[in-house]
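Ticket closed. Logging final result for Cytochrome c.
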Amino acid sequence: MISWRKHYKKVLLAISLLLTTSASIYAQDLKGDAKKGETLFKTNCSACHALDKQVVGPALGGVVDRLKKEQNLGVDWFQKWIKDNKALRASGDKYANEVFEKFKKVEMTQFPSLSDQDVADILEYTTNPPKVEPAAEDAANSPEAQKAAQEEKNQSRIILIALFSIAGLLLWVLFKLSQLVKLQRKSGEISELDATRIHSLGEFYNKYQTLGKTVMAALAIMALYGIWNWLMWVGVYKGYQPEQPIYFSHKIHAGENKIDCQLCHSSAKYGKVSEIPSVNVCMNCHKGIAEYKGKYIEEGKTRDFYTAEIKKIYEAAGWDEASQSYTGKTKPIEWVRIHNMPDFVYFNHAQHVVAGEQTIIKAKKVDVVCKACHGEVNEMDKLQMANNFTMGWCIECHRTTEVDMTNEYNKEYYQKLHDKLKKQYGGDTKMTVDAIGGLECGKCHY
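Final structure:
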């Protein structure tokens, strides 16, 4: 018993060393999956880290080998750091505290929910990232694409040669005809024919006065109709698609990445105007997204093109990528307004979005209400005005949009009106917006 008490501290120390060594070996033996790691990295890490450069945190490409070489730290250290870096710093770990101080004491998010295998997958991705699929623009440089381009070029040449040949033949025919006319004039046959023809517009009008007056009257009516039709379309700009100071693709943001409209246009639901987002809204995402790596690329564009547009946002915000800080030298972005109602029309976004979400369109989301006016914005690379926004267009929408009578509020509030309409027009009558005041002049003009 005395002997055991004498050596129990050494035994406990040996056991703890054995367990620590086993844990370390176990961690190092875990085989990571780079593809799974890529998904985990993009979900958990990409907001603050990139493989090839510093963002909020350091570049993580080859970080395992780098720390092994520089600090003699293994995978077990990464397991502790990623899951609970705060506890690791509190334990007195030297390098953990050095990193914390180096990055201005910005505390890294803890990920206790990640398993050892998840961490191993992420580290494998940072060590051996999967090869990037060839970009869409690179396909244009492939042998097949070059061959097709050459064939198309040859076909164009053949068509041009054929057109020039036809043009030459026509010129030759005209030349021969002119020679023939000269011969006929010399013989006197054409002079006799000219005597029976009308040689001026005045002669034609005197000969066909009735027809002439009829034609003039028709032309006057058509001219008046054209002027009237032109006046009716003043201020109607369907298809208007101006150039913007920064190229912004709604298809990439709202379509490919499925970003909700109201994340950027936050006042659309609760304000009269759906404001243009300020540059700080852009920086909420692009502070950590410095280059475009998406799969979708618009025809005629490249990833470098989109990345260059992101740099314009940095210039406007006064963001320095190298130091990851704001310089204070900002520059306004002069966006060109596309949708604008006339001054004599009152339009409230909140009224339409809230009504559309809760009372008008059954079981559909807000973005459906947005699309009703703005069109399929999520499919537009370059935003344009999708509808006419005339008074007739608005009235037609109110006459055809059905009120959701399964909504408890609507069912109670409009029940008597609905029953009255059924008696007047039949049992299949549906409640539309015009029936609840959607055609009142004072709603839009006051």
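Residues 143-187 form the longest helix (45 residues). No further action required.
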